[in-house]
Specification:
- By secondary structure, the chain is α/β, with parallel strands linked by helices.
- It has three domains: 3-54; 63-208 and 395-412, Rossmann fold; 222-389, 3-Layer(aba) Sandwich (Rossmann fold).
- The chain contains 16 helices and 13 strands.
- It has helices at 3-15, 21-54, 74-87, 118-126, 184-196, 209-219, 242-245, 248-256, 269-272, 274-283, 296-301, 312-319, 346-354, 366-375, 377-390, 397-412; strands at residues 62-68, 91-95, 110-114, 130-135, 151-156, 177-180, 202-205, 230-233, 260-263, 288-289, 304-307, 324-327, 355-358.
- The strands form two sheets. A seven-stranded parallel sheet has the order 3-2-1-4-5-6-7, covered by helices on one side. Strands 10-9-8-11-12-13 form a six-stranded parallel sheet, with helices on both faces.
- The protein starts with a helix and ends in a 6-residue tail after the last helix.
Amino acid sequence: MSFLKIVSDAYAPIKQMYIDPGTGSMLFTILVGTLGVAVYGLKSLILKLRTSFGHKTNENSIPFVIFTDSKRYWNVFKPICDEFEKRGVSLVYYTQSQDDPIFDSNYEFVKGEYIGDNNRAFTKLNFLKADVLLSTTPSLDVFQWKRSKDVKWYVHIPHACSDITLYRLFGIDYYDAILLSGAFQIDQIRKLEELRNLPAKELKTVGLTYFDVLKERRENTPSVHNEKPVVLIAPTWGQSSILKRYGKEIIDPLINTGYEIVVRPHPQSFTSEKDMIDELMKNYPTLEWNRDTDNFDILNRADIMISDYSGVVFDFSLVFDKPIIYADTQFDDSPYDAHWIDDDLWTFKVLPKIGMQLTKENVKNIKQLIDDCLVSPEFASARKEAVKQSWEHIGQAANLIADYLIDKQKELNGERQQ
């Protein structure tokens, strides 16, 4: 019997009575929620019973584990894997992507393992025996991914240099440590801990591995000289994104500039906003729609980016040192940890300094905005200041992260530091 059939049968007696629409809606919502919790709880109990009787764990704890929920984060983890390999330290790399680039790497000390997806992956993680686990994945101990009693230390590493509070609610609450790109993120975490009465996490500023790699690649790649400006639209996804709020209101004026326009939707948009993306691609078939797994070539090629609050804004402006235009999307922070903090987000304080805001009022003058941004010395100077705030230890991130993980593992096992 389906869940909806259960709800329908349970709701049938209520339909025999007159209840005003507002009260009826509320009662139905409560009923659905209660039954949903019951069904989910039953499924969780069955899963626990299965794993209790059928799941086997290795006797020995794994010293170091990296867990990634997508191959997209290989650019974050590859420098760390390279560093462990260089040091001859064993590392296990768990991934939910069967085609993760780890499997094309010829490592001796780093071992990649596909752990499946959904419940299969979470079962593996929930019963894991390890000393230190590193991940970019938020919501540990919030949804299906639970803290294993046999993992000694959970470490989170962000995959952007922007606000650490731009995760969905409780995204980083239950990690033991967080490795940060810049010191400005420390205050945000401490305020969340205080508001939620959480124990203080161990925080260490280490920089960003993939920024270091991007910088090195950029320095070793010839600059692109375009005949006319290449404008890259690179939004995030969700209700506050450019494509969701503006759509053709931005695309049409951009086409009229005569400049080369490239649209690179967030990868999640092709799943969560498929209908919207399909409609836009149908209406604008002559536009270039970029879906490269590696965004380096398009970032290197573009002269200016139009975005919202996506982390790629900082990839483009801080690493490639190029101007941006950011859209006024009336950001809704209610689904995010940022909603709990009264202070303005660092992202929205720095954006007006490094780029120009696009609004519905000035979108008709977008060509002039682009031309002004391309030559502005003020924006160029502000980008350098933003680098100092958000990207510390340039070129050293992988080394510092490896040092931290190895030292922490020794500490957890009572070994003296050298």
